[in-house]
Structure formats: C-alpha cells, structure tokens
Amino acid sequence: MSNFNPKRETVMNMPRTLSASAIALFLASGVGTAFAASPAALARAHIRDVAQGKVDALVAQYGTEPVLEWVGGPLNGRYRGTHAIRGVWAKFAKANAPLKAKVTHVQTAANPAGATVTADVRFTGKATIPVRYVLTYRSGKLVNEIWQIDPHMARSAGY
Q1: Parallel, antiparallel, or unpaired: how do β-strands 141-149 and 62-71 relate?
Q2: What pTM did the predictor assign?
C-alpha cells in the first residue's frame, strides 16, 4: 500500500512552483535590469582592468564584433574582434601593467539603444599615458572603444 496523497504532493510542491514562477516573472518584467551596473560603472571597471593588466577580464567585457580604435602611440591602429583586441591588450599589459589610473571628466549619454561614456584617464607607472577614452555599450557589453592618446592632457595640470 502506497502513502501517496495527490493533494498533499501538490501542496508541498506549490511553494517551489510559485518561487520559480515569481522569479521568471520578475526577470521578464525588466525590473531585474535595475540592478545592472551603470555604463559609467562598466567603464570604470574596464579602466581598472586595463590598469591592472587583466586581459581575460577585459576581453569578457566585449560584445560581438567589437572594435578598438587606438589612436597614437606604439599600438596605433584599428583592432576588430575579440581575438585582435586580446592581442593588443596583452601587449599593452606586458609593457606597462600594473598602472594607476586617475579618471576625470566622466560623461555618459544613453538611450534605449545603448550608452556612450567619455572620460579623461591618466595612467601612471613606468610612464604616464594620457588618454581620452570613449566607450560605447549595447546591452551592457562594450562594442566600440576609442583610446586616444592626448599629449595636451599630459602637459596640462588640470582644467
């Protein structure tokens, strides 16, 4: 004789089913996206990983078919795709990391299609590397990046 009671089994499984349904509804509603990092926070994390030479962490931040425009300096060029971008960050990290990064003048422009963050960054370590940084995010992933060496920023003491 079995101890199976269909009413009892249904009641016992109800909290588990309700929990799964509630989570699915929460995620589908878009409310959960409020907990995602802001574009400025994503940019600061990216800059931190550049300074620390964390190549794997950097590459994980890119979306599909990303482009890095490196303007000026020994790595000057256009890098397309994560494989090419991984190579340039590996070279940069090997030659420079670890660095300190001072981030100023952060500005964000965003709409439902994506966000662009601009910042002035002064990397210091073996050398000082002044950069005007422009990062474009779509769906929380970095898709376009401009690393502009800015000699004027190196000479100026501030604004």
Answers
A1: parallel
A2: 0.75
